[in-house]
Amino acid sequence: MPARRASGARARIGSIALAAASAWVLTASAPAAPAPSAAPAAPAPSAAPAAPAASATARVEARSAHLLAVGTVHGESMTIHLSRLEDNAPVRDAEVVLALRGATHTATALADGGYAVETPDLALPGSAAVRIEVTSSGTRQDLEGTLQPASTPEPAEDKGGSRQLGWWVLNFAVCIGFLWLWQRRKRDDPDEEAP
């Protein structure tokens, strides 16, 4: 009889420990409630549209010893912004020629100080070597770079979903272990409920 009581006590302790573990797992797997704030947070409308636009734009950076050119491509047109490396000052009133895929294209000056090039070669897939020839104050500099194609946004992995699935599996394992211990206790102590 004392052996049966000892095994019953062990089973009760095990079931209490399993119940506590399952409660902890259920609490840990529940999503955390947001902290209360004095004023409701306003959604950032510019954050969502900015990410797809940035990922859908092809881009090139070309450098020489003294100049930096940053070009962004939208369809068949490229906007080029030139600046000096030493002080980051924009370079205006220069003659700019873009050499791309074996052809040269003369850029036109824009009102904001940048330069624009229109060519169907910019819409072709894949990366390409780029040379930007800049003639300013009688001196010419060649800036070399690589046109990187627009990166297509990859579908976001559902990391939260796989983590949630893991928590559910753990919950079921704890519940099954609890039921197994309860049945074992009932089998070991058949006269436990008897007065």
Task: Describe this protein's structure.
- With 195 residues, the chain is of the alpha+beta class.
- The protein has two domains: 1-27 and 159-195, no CATH class; 57-147, Sandwich (Immunoglobulin-like), CATH 2.60.40.
- Helices cover 34% and strands 29% of the residues.
- It contains three helices and nine strands, in the order ααβββββββββα.
- The chain has helices at residues 2-29, 47-55, 159-188, and strands at residues 58-63, 67-74, 77-84, 95-100, 103-106, 108-109, 115-118, 128-136, 139-147.
- The chain has a nine-stranded antiparallel beta sheet, with no helix packed on it.
- Helix 1 (2-29) packs antiparallel against helix 3 (159-188).
- The longest helix has 30 residues, at 159-188.
Helix vs. strand class: alpha+beta
Relative strand content: 25-35%
- The largest sheet has its strands arranged as 5-4-8-9-1-2-3-7-6
Alpha plus pi helix count:
3
Could you give the distance between the termini?
14 Å
CATH secondary-structure class of the largest domain: Mainly Beta
Could you estimate the helical fraction of the residues in percent? 25-40%
Report the count of strand segments.
9
Please mark out the parts with pLDDT under 50 across 5 or more consecutive residues, or reply none.
Answer: 42-55
CATH topology of the largest domain: the name is Immunoglobulin-like
Instruction: Give the count of structural domains.
Output: 2
Instruction: Let me know the average pLDDT.
Output: 74
Q: Mind telling me which CATH architecture of the largest domain this is?
A: Sandwich
Biggest sheet descriptor: 9 strands, antiparallel
Return Rg in Å. 34 Å
Q: Tell the overall outline.
A: rod-shaped
Please trace the helix and strand order, writing H or E for each element: HHEEEEEEEEEH
